[in-house]
Amino acid sequence: MKSLLKNGREQKGLKTREVAQILNIDQALISKFENGIRQPTREQVLKLAELLGIDYEKIMTSWLKEKILHEIENEELALMALTAAQEELKYRKSVSKIKLSGALEKILKEIDWLKAKFDTTAQNNFNEILQKTALEYTFESNRIDENTMTLKETEMVINEGLTISGKSMKEHLEAVNHQEAIRYLKDLQQNNSFYERDLLSIHNLIQRGINPESGNYRKIATASDKEPASPDKQLSIPKEIEEYFIWFEINKNKLHPVVLASEMHFRLFKIKPFNHANGKTSRLIMNLILMQKGYPIVNIKGNDENKRQYLKLLENNDSEDFIFFVAQIEKENLERYIKKE
After folding, report:
1. How many CA atoms lie within 13 A of 112 on its CB side?
2. What is the rounded distance in angstroms from the CA atom of residue 88 to the CA atom of residue 159?
3. What CATH number is given to the structural domain containing 122?
4. CB-based burial label for 259 (10 Å; 0-12, 13-18, 19+)
């Protein structure tokens, strides 16, 4: 830091007195900055950088480094603390990676207005609304995953315990299990929290009797993978899940609920932690978060065109288009429920 300031001043052909006069900073302070005796404030650093033509990134990096060293250089656990701080800073910085376009901000404002109206008109019927939409949600979510049952057949299996001729046992279990998972979401609804044990419980519920590895992270490649997962990949899944939940804890009270829920779906689907039902699990997590925030379920339709669009959006590296897709559905939901009142 001190070398940057001194070299910058000399290259400009300025004396410390001249720098002091131009920036209205005491000359003695300028000398102390250059000797490393004192640290300038952020405002002073910016003024010095502009006057002396020093690269902003270079001088701010040096200034921050000096501040950190001043605080911890004599601490026995300084290096361990720095490593831990670096990891957490990566997660905290992830908040700023979500850039919202004007179109997305507009629809989120419309949702906020509708949600406020929903809270005063239909919120008292929230559980009734959830009950009515749960069956259709089970049908559509299973349809996305190639379940061939109709809505009526799904209702007969769930509400009447009937067996549908020509439908596999797996399809029957998918209907019953998904409804059980929604009941579990209702139990979690009152808490503004979501933990790894909840994720594993949700997956266990929807895959119970279908997949012997239900509720456990995958150890081999999924059916869509061309090659078996490497040992490194197998070990990385718990680490990715750990990062996933750290991201959630940091962002759960900072992001718009629709953005938060969509991101949690998008990120979990990218990790693909399970052998099967990653999409279904991700949709349930998304709706758990929406329910906890007092929003209606987002029911993504399973018809061919809608399914194709949904899966294509999940293939993107950027989540914004997917968030917009979810926001449109949520907006339509709120409009429909308000209109019914």
Report:
1. 10
2. 47
3. 1.10.3290.10
4. buried
Number of domains in the chain: 2
List the end-to-end C-alpha distance of the chain, in Å, as a whole number: 65
Closest listed residue to residue 149, CA positions, set 181, 183, 178:
178
The pTM of this model reads 0.71
Who's near 43: CB < 8 A, 6+ residues apart?
none
- In the DSSP assignment, the letter for residue 95 is G
**113 and 41 within one domain:** no
Place of tokens 């720095």: 82
Do residue 195 and residue 312 come from a single domain? yes
Determine contact, residues 19/25, Cβ cutoff 8 Å.
yes
Question: For each successive 10 residues of the chain (341 residues), what is the average pLDDT?
Answer: 88 91 90 88 86 86 88 87 81 65 93 91 73 91 96 95 95 96 91 88 97 88 48 70 89 92 97 96 97 93 94 93 96 88 60
DSSP sequence for 256-298: -HHHHHHHHHHHHHHH--SSS-HHHHHHHHHHHHHHHTTPPP-
Q: What are phi and psi of 276, to 5 degrees?
A: -140, 160
What is the domain extent for residue 51?
2-74
3-state helix, strand, coil in the chain (%, to 5): 70, 0, 30
Q: Which two tokens stand for residue 60?
A: 């701010």
Of 274, 276, 207, nearest to 237 by C-alpha is: 274
Name which of 280, 264, 133 is nearest 202 in CA terms.
280
> For the chain, what is the radius of gyration of the CA atoms?
27
Check whether residue 138 and residue 198 sit in a common domain: yes
CB 237 within 8 A of CB 273: yes
Does a structural domain hold residue 150? yes
In terms of DSSP H, where are the helices of 145-230?
151-160, 169-188, 196-207
